[in-house]
Write a structure and sequence with these properties.
Blueprint lengths: L1 H16 L2 E10 L2 E10 L7 E5 L7 H12 L3 E5 L11 H13 L1 H14 L10 E6 L1 H11 L6 E5 L18 E6 L7 H14 L3 E6 L16 H18 L1
Length: about 250
């Protein structure tokens, strides 16, 4: 707990030295309105744009915090909204219903992701180079966008769902994929990870994976029973290395 608090304080100090501007951003995909969150660093020229896909509980202060962390480092961060501005899920049943609706309608799922990617050109601090990242449900969404052939510079999944739906593959994926996963993840285990790596290799997609021994499903989620400080910090450092390479 002490080390976690120190890490947060250090980050706060770094962010305080930068000029972080953050606010909600309304946009439309199709006939539905969405509300994302944009964080930028007005003190320096943007290094690139990072789109963050939320977990199954919708866009919360968790994704907002990650966006601000990236902005402190010079990236334009756009935490996108997959569910819609009129949705405010509360509780497991609501989380399952909204995420399940996306999994059961892949065409709509992809349309919302692609719409957010297009909207990224309109946000404050927008750049031409983009990487998409996400946690848990968001990690699965990142892979959905990759399979859909999203024109991005890279894709990053943190403890995401790794399964490939029937009828989909990675033949349209044109940018590198990076995976951060826990070896003790009970949701998507090591067989699923191995299968995905085989698929990426077969499709000729540049890819990498970092596995954290003993880490469970939500190892980056502060305060959860699965939180793992070493895995959280290690995966964040790995993300920053990936961003330096791709943006």
């Amino acid at each position: 707990m002490f080390r976690t608090a120190c890490a947060v304080l250090a980050l706060t100090a770094t962010a305080a030295q930068a000029e972080i501007s953050a606010d909600y951003h309304r946009y439309t995909v199709g006939d539905r309105e969405y509300e994302g969150y944009v964080a930028t660093n007005t003190a320096i020229e943007p290094k690139g744009t990072v789109l963050i896909v939320h977990d199954w509980d919708g866009l919360t202060d968790y994704e907002e915090r990650r966006a601000e962390m990236l902005a402190a480092l010079g990236y334009t961060a756009f935490a996108i909204d997959v569910y819609g501005a009129d949705e405010d899920p509360q509780g497991m049943d609501a989380y399952r219903a909204l995420s399940g609706a996306m999994y059961s309608d892949r065409e709509e799922f992809q349309a919302r992701l692609m719409g957010a990617i297009e909207e990224a050109a309109n946000i404050t601090g927008a750049t031409d180079n983009h990487v998409m990242m996400g946690y848990c449900f968001g990690g699965a969404a990142v892979l959905e966008a990759a399979r859909a052939g999203a024109d991005l510079n890279g894709f990053v999944s943190f403890h995401g769902g790794l399964g490939t739906p029937e009828g989909q593959d990675y033949s349209a994926t044109s940018a590198p994929i990076m995976l951060f996963h826990g070896s003790a993840d009970p949701v998507s285990g090591m067989p699923e990870l191995a299968s995905l790596l085989d698929q990426l290799q077969e499709a000729g997609v540049d890819h990498g994976a970092e596995v954290f021994g003993g880490a469970r499903h939500s190892f980056t989620v502060y305060g959860s029973n699965d939180y793992d400080l070493a895995a959280d910090q290690g995966s964040w450092e790995g993300l920053l290395e990936f961003l330096e390479e791709q943006l």
